[in-house]
Amino acid sequence: MELHELTVKEASEKLLNKEISAKELSGALLDRAKTLDKDLHAFLAFTEERAKQDADSADAAIKQDRAMPLTGIPYAVKDNILIEGIQATAGSKILENYKATYTATSMKRLMNQLPVLIGKTNLDEFAMGSSTENSAYGPTKNPYDMSRVPGGSSGGSAAAVASGQALFAFGTDTGGSVRQPASFCGVVGFKPTYGRISRYGLIALGSSLDQLGIFAKTVEDVALIAQTVSGPDEYDSTALNKPVADYTSLLNNDVKGMRIGIPKEYFASGIDPEVEKIVKDAIKRFQDLGATVGEVSLPHTEYALATYYIILPVEVSANLSRYDGQRYGFSAPGKTLEEVYVNSRSLGFGAEPKRRIMIGTYASSAGYSDAYYKKAKLAQQLIRKDFTDAFEKFDLLITPTTPTPAFKLGEKSDPLSMYLADIFTVGLNIAGVPGISIPAGMTQSGLPVGIQLVAPHFAEEKLFTAGHAFQKSLDQKFKPTLTK
Predict the structure, then answer these.
(1) Nearest Cα to 408, choosing from 172, 56, 139?
(2) Per the domain annotation, does 169 fall within a domain?
(3) Which has the closest alpha carbon to 180: 412, 370, 450?
(4) What are phi and psi of 407, to 5 degrees?
(5) Tens digit of each residue's pLDDT (9 = 90 or more) over 96-119
(6) Which string of DSSP letters, residue by residue, matches 270-284?
(7) Which residues pair with 81 in a beta bridge?
(8) Most buried residue, 71, 246, 419, 460, by CB count within 10 Å?
(9) CA–CA dist 453, 438 (Å, integer)
(10) One of 78, 120, 412, 462 is an active-site residue; which one?
(11) Which tens digit of pLDDT belongs to each residue from 202-219?
């Protein structure tokens, strides 16, 4: 097995046993990344000097027998997550020359274990999109078929892990931006409960919906990483002081007797037949593992997408008002202060941020807030209650992650058709519940398909237990072709 094919756990064992060094491992992945990424464009920047320093620190810790499970493991970070002294463009021209002045809490917790940062990954501008085609720096391609998208907005991170350019990566998930690209790229993608992992140091999109997310090849790897970065944070009042279970110790719990609900609204018309078959095969597999399965209704599902695309733009309008050409980021000259604002934002923002800023400003303006935003917030409570009621009867829910496999680059030029790509994922962000996408099969044309597991608030361990059992039983390797 080549080094880039290792899981986090396998690489950690080799490092701790001194079979390989962190310098050797990170060097191999960086070399691979710099070769592959000319075509894939998963990265916006490589942190080569930082990687050498990190690898030296990791090797020193290993030599002194003070290494931890993530010591020496090469990873990548979506370019809207802050690491002091390193670029954070958020995929936008308006932050083209910005370098972070502080480090996100989640990244500080991770760095305590001495992993090796190899680069910052591509994304839809300000994480607005489902294909990574909205990046101001060009699209990322899917490593299974480079004529297709990797999903979005965290498409760069998903593609980096799928193609072996990093052993794990971080993204953000506001409406499916980790789970959807994970499904398209054949990797595991995890979104925690809102409040489980600090948002301090994430460039804000929708503050009530944003979450840090994790990509890796296995559920086992994701559980270990989630264990490392979860918990309360004095810098983020929304990071709740809830106990974090020992996820890794619970991985091998029995799923026999686990109650899994199938939301009937997620199997409506419009699902690709191959996707539907793969998901139904996965449901049968859970039954074979001893879980009990039953149908459940989430009756307000039909309002989730509309609710999301009112709440999110309102928050976008507020969060992106700080990019005014005065405080930091891109600034265009003008004769008056107003001209500086207009010129800076006109030239600095791409089409999708402009679209959402205008929608959000309109929906929150006087005379329209009650008609749109207030109703969306009321609908949010109904959607949240749907999930709460479902979890009175079931331990987990299972759904498709996406209605289709990865679509072609340029195929969804209409914004509305692009928004529909998130139809099975946005509900979780509206309700604040945790979810995970796990590779479940391949289409006849060789494209991966994921299933989505959903758990009650702060019950991530149920996702990891069930997901780990499913992955072990499937025993299927998802390896991209990297063909054009």
Answers:
(1) 139
(2) yes
(3) 450
(4) -95, 170
(5) 999 999 999 999 999 999 999 999
(6) T--HHHHHHHHHHHH
(7) 202
(8) 460
(9) 8
(10) 78
(11) 999 999 999 999 999 999
b/e burial code for range 404-426 (CB count within 10 A of at least 16 → b): bbbbebeebeeeeebbebbbbbb
Contacts for 379 with CB less than 8 Å, ≥ 6 apart: 300, 303, 306, 307
Convert the pLDDT of each residue in 364-389 to its tens digit. Answer: 998 899 999 999 999 999 999 999 99
Q: Helix 8-16 to helix 22-40 angle, to the nearest 10 degrees?
A: 150
* Domains contained in the chain, number: 1
Q: Is 177 an active-site residue?
A: yes
- Tell me the residue type at 294: G
Residue 417 bears catalytic tag: no
Indicate whether 214 belongs to any domain: yes
Catalytic residue, candidates 21, 106, 135, 153? 153
| Structure tokens given for 44 | 């916006």
| CATH code for the domain of 194 | 3.90.1300.10
The answer on pLDDT for 419 being more than 90 is: no
Residue 13 identity (one-letter amino acid): E
pLDDT(329) > 90: no
Instruction: Examine the pLDDT at 484 and tell me if it is beyond 70.
Output: no
Count of beta carbons in the 10 Å neighbourhood of residue 61: 18
Q: Is residue 29 part of a domain?
A: yes
Instruction: Determine the Cα–Cα distance for residues 30 and 323; give it in Å rounded to an integer.
Output: 33
* Candidate list 177, 230, 331, 344, residue with the active-site label: 177
Asked if residue 384 lies in contact with residue 431, where contact means CB atoms within 8 angstroms, the answer is yes
Q: Is the predicted pLDDT of residue 74 greater than 70, yes or no?
A: yes
- Give catalytic status of residue 78 as yes or no: yes
Domain coverage including residue 160 = 3-255
Q: What φ, ψ does residue 59 adopt, rounded to 5°?
A: -65, -35
Structure tokens at 238: 């929304």
